[in-house]
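Something for you to look into today, if you have time. I want to see for myself how the chain folds. Leave the record below and I will have a look.
***
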Amino acid sequence: MGDVASNIWWALALGAQFHRVERITPGNFGHFRERGLPILYAVLGAADAKDPFKALEGMLLAAEDRSQSVSFVYTEAEGSG
């Protein structure tokens, strides 16, 4: 991210654009690292991935008061283990 527009956009994003719980991907992992907060991961199995909001209900509750001090993310498990 070398240009000024990108840096301004990410300054705004880092301050206000993160949801309480987000799906983490190779494409956005760096943005969470730039945010500078500890990252708490949830790994969803195949059954959970069908309804991630239900599977993440507890994490959503925990993130309600802590999303400014911890990045809450989830990913889906790949393969059969």
About this structure: Residues 19-76 form one domain. The chain is about 45% helix and 20% strand. Residues 4-16 form the longest helix (13 residues).
